[in-house]
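ingest -> validate -> predict -> emit
validate: passed (alphabet ok, no gaps, 181 aa)
predict: started
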Amino acid sequence: MKVGAATQSDLPQILNLQRQNLPGVLCQEEMNREGFVTVEHDLEVLSAMNLKHPHTVAKVEDQVIGYALAMHTSFMDHVDILKPMFTKIEQVLKFIDPDDPLNYIVMGQICIAKGYRGQGLFTLLYNDLKQRLSDQYEQIITEVDMKNTRSIAAHHKHGFEIIHTYEQGTITWQLLSWKWQ
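emit:
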């Protein structure tokens, strides 16, 4: 298995793995046990994001078995469901420290194929992003649906801290930060 920067040719596999883990595909029991992803990206936006900061992929042979999507703040208007998250991040960070230059990158999504969960890939994916991006950013921030208890637990175990909890429609989100510096 190898972990590293995604190439443009990896993107269709990322989208395929993403589609396999959306709520509309999974039953409630499986979502509770295994977790899920919320956002369905399109190839155009995923590709543009990858050109700005390559995503991280885990691969066995040539098959993508996990990914972590690096999302620069310049993409805040490209994915409708994430617009409130970007607004909330900026509000919270300015409240915490009004003089902070908001030097962060967003985790656009992290996902690991079912047969490879619980083997440390979550840590490998995040650590690869940190290695490649920590010279440019002070932290990585993400939000997780509170119903996604597997993801919440994994992020907390990895060292993410809650910076804010808020409701958007019927979803309660936890904003989580992993400070690199």
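The mean pLDDT is 93.
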